[in-house]
Amino acid sequence: MKALVVGGGIGGLAAAVAFHQHGWEVEVLERASEITEIGAGLSIQPNGLRALDTLGLGGLLRTGGQAGPPRGIRAADGAWLIRNDIEELERRFGRWAIIHRAALVDILRAALPATALRPGTTVRQVLPDGTIHYDGGTASADLVIGADGLHSVTRRSIWPQAAGPRYVGYTTWRLLTAPHVVEGSVEIWGRGERFGYLPMPDGRVYCYLMGNAPAGSRTGLDRLRDRFARWHDPVPALLDAARPDAVLQHDTYELPNLRTYVRGKIAILGDAAHAMAPNLGQGACQALEDAVTLAAAVHTLGVDAGLAEYDRLRRPRTQMIAQLSRRVGAPAHWTSPLVTALRDTTLPLLPSALFGRSVTPAYTWTL
């Protein structure tokens, strides 16, 4: 049996590893000339680690980048809005891990034979019968897995009438700073903007910033430093510790719900199926869940029944996580002074267990 995977990111490589471990012949078709990953840090939450455990790879992350749960949310002046019981979160759900995106791609890539990787291959069309047209030729397989991201060629080929990605109203910057001491993982909310940071295992700090902005607008590091100059420590210091060439900016999109993730011999996963706002940090974790669930279902039930089971299991869950992510991030992007003041007054009055209850559906996943 053969699987063709369109896209060599985290979800596509994880799917290829899972099918390879089940004895399938796999090929990963990636349009970039090298299978790697740009970006900065990545938090792999307990459910994502369990997905990696099914591939025998979770221990590599736990050894090199184990981290604690998020400590909570602060206001721009430093006051705590939500303060998590991190010991209780860890007891309930397990550990988190922090890793550079490229390092996770390297781990997944190393679990595949070199002959399975075909960088520099641009797929132009995917057909329901498992045929792929790419620059330079045609290929076919028993199963095609579309893991080709937000602007998926696979999704557009198989569901040409489906709605495309929609801009959520804010842009996202990501960066790694020089080594800097921080107290753990924290997110800070202002009016229409926020700043989050996570310590990396090597002492550097992964920062992400989000701000309301028109799609396509671009802002450099100097302007970000000015924008966040009056926020509490360590925000200005972290921006001062960054280099301009280390800042990545991407507008934030989500994908409207699809009616199915499968058709014929085709399945889509990750952002190709359910791109979501990054407010829960679940994008990579959901792609990992998709990959191992798809492989297990097809291995157990065969292609046709396995694809149906994959869709039954994954579509409701991922669409629920996307909706939750959209909802929990919305208050950070309110701009009314009155409404944000009410938010900042109300949130500290809520029970400390609120975060744990809200993320339970995401973190308690098992295969």
TrEMBL record:
Any GO molecular function: monooxygenase activity
InterPro entries: FAD-bd, FAD-dep_Monooxygenase_BioMet, FAD/NAD-bd_sf
Keywords, alphabetical: Monooxygenase, Oxidoreductase
Domain FAD-binding: 2-323
Name of the protein described by the UniProt record: Monooxygenase
Organism name: Nocardia jinanensis
